[in-house]
Amino acid sequence: MSRPQCPRCSRPIEYCLCALIPQLRSRTRLLILQHPSEVKHALNTARLAALGLSNAELRVGEVFEDLPELLAQPGYQVCLLFPGEDAQSLAQYAEQVGEQPLLLVVPDGTWRKARKLLHCNPLLAALPRVTLAPGLQSRYRLRKAPMSGALSTIEAVVSALDILEAPARFDALLKPFEALIDGQIKAMGEQTYRRNHGDGA
Fold first, then answer.
1. Which of 18, 58, 87, 113 is the most buried (most CB within 10 A)?
2. What is the mean pLDDT of the chain?
């Protein structure tokens, strides 16, 4: 029998994170497109990001029939946060568009699933691509990063907003994320965590 869940953060009631989720305003609009395989994941950071930002929307699916409408936000310059040969640094791209606010589209899923989202939605693949600065370190202590600089979705969102909305900072978004990870480590036990994810000490 499954445990009762919080209808907002989808965590078991006894581990509800809602008290830690901020409500932050941003000029930048976030559109997070989540692959269905991520919805039931215990560490669903895309949901936390969307809950903590007033100007963010989370959509779940593989094919988004209404993508043209989602991207047609008057006054916004649209770009995709995803690496690629022709990707520009986010800071450089933002400088080029000047005062116009950005609609930042963020695919959420494993790298393979995120690529599938682009493949299934050609309109996404056609967007200008932007990337974060290389060498960023993830606080995601429960997964080994598939490549240097790989971040969880919520970390990528915070890093992007810190660039676009400077001097404003969005670190408060990471509080429920860090509490979630601490809870997972506590549940598995420190020794198990160290053996599987730590330094073995």
1. 58
2. 87
Per the CB < 8 A criterion, the answer to whether 158 and 174 are in contact is: yes
Amino acid identity of residue 200, one-letter, is G
Where are the alpha helices (H) located in 19-152, listed in sequence order?
45-52, 67-71, 90-97, 111-120, 122-125
CATH 3.40.1280 fits 28-138+147-186, yes or no: yes
Region of 170 (left: φ > 0; alpha: ψ -120 to 50; beta: rest) is alpha
Q: Listing from the earlier edge strand, what are the strands of the sheet with 29-34?
A: 56-60, 29-34, 102-108, 77-81, 129-131, 88-89
Nearest to 160 by CA among 80, 73, 64: 80
**What are the tens digits of pLDDT across the range 4-19?**
888 898 888 888 999 9
